[in-house]
Design a protein that fits this description.
single chain; about 290 residues; mainly alpha; 2 domains; two-stranded antiparallel ribbon; 16 helices; about 55% helix; globular
């Protein structure tokens, strides 16, 4: 039987998505950068490691995990303390050999230096984010946009010397107003704001209801298959659209399903196998192929 509307189709997904969530909601359910962040117990360490790990979360998972490990090997066992005392002129040389895809050592130095300045000004990355966070807003769009703009307005000369016209650190601070889906920033927010068996709940003053789904290739593919979005092109509008669909199922926690949707897509790279997996999980879908 054809489902009458997109809204009713989405409503019928809740049992499936709840099963998926339960199946992935434990720390070792899949290889993921959050496992590295979870090694740390202190809130300031988790915030710093989480921001570094999310910033590098592009490319193959194995490569991402290796790059995070190499960065943390330089930073040492107390990342929060390290960043609070970070001096790019004194400490920057130790990062010269680090490369993650197109990101180079100076870009990582700039990332750490920007975090140091955020913490100096606001006490934490959360404090810096909250300076432009509006609890009455529909979601974090404006807060993210201003967060990135203010981050890139901080001193970069300490890291680069002569700052390039488009320094590599800009990649870590995309903006919704430019159309970006802001996948890595939204991933960091999910880790920091939500709390369950996976997400860490380090931040206490941002409402999980305001989060936006981290839009990666796997979430895009699964989202289209499940008719969670009508957009064809990735970007901020698609991220908000998928989030709006999930908000109908979980109004106070729409990003709850992100981890399981992402890893479902990773496990089933072909659309046919993805549909077979959805069928195996006892869903009733009406999708046009």
């Amino acid at each position: 039987m054809r489902i009458a509307s997109r809204s009713s189709s989405i409503a019928q997904l809740k049992p499936l998505l709840d099963d998926l969530y339960a199946g992935f909601n434990y720390p070792d359910s899949a290889a993921d950068p959050i496992q590295i962040v979870r090694r740390y117990d202190r809130a300031d360490d988790r915030e710093v490691v989480g921001f570094c790990a999310a910033s590098l979360a592009f490319g193959r998972v194995g490569s991402v995990m290796q790059s995070i490990e190499r960065l943390l090997a330089v930073v040492g066992p107390q990342p929060g303390s390290y960043v609070r005392a970070f001096d790019p002129s004194r400490d920057g040389a130790a990062f010269r050999h680090l490369v993650h895809r197109w990101t180079r050592g100076p870009d990582l130095v700039a990332l750490l230096w920007v975090m140091r300045q955020m913490i100096d000004r606001a006490g934490s990355i959360e404090g810096f984010f909250l300076q432009e966070y509006d609890a009455a807003a529909d979601d974090v769009e404006q807060a993210l946009d201003r967060f990135s703009a203010r981050a890139l307005a901080l001193d970069l000369r300490g890291a680069y010397g002569r700052v390039p016209s488009r320094p590599g650190v800009c990649y870590f601070f995309p903006r919704p107003s430019a159309g970006s889906g802001c996948k890595r920033l939204n991933l960091f927010l999910r880790w920091m704001v939500r709390r369950d068996a996976l997400d860490l709940g380090v931040w206490t003053r941002v409402d999980p209801a305001k989060l936006v789904v981290p839009l990666d290739t796997h979430v895009i593919r699964v989202g289209r298959c499940l008719r969670l979005t009508h957009y064809a092109s990735p970007g901020w509008r698609m991220a908000r659209d998928i989030t709006a669909s999930l908000r109908r199922l979980e109004p106070t926690d729409p990003v709850k399903y992100d981890y399981s949707l992402c890893h479902l897509g990773m496990k089933n790279p072909k659309l046919s196998s993805l549909k077979a997996e959805l069928s195996r999980l006892r869903t009733v879908l009406s999708v046009e192929t």
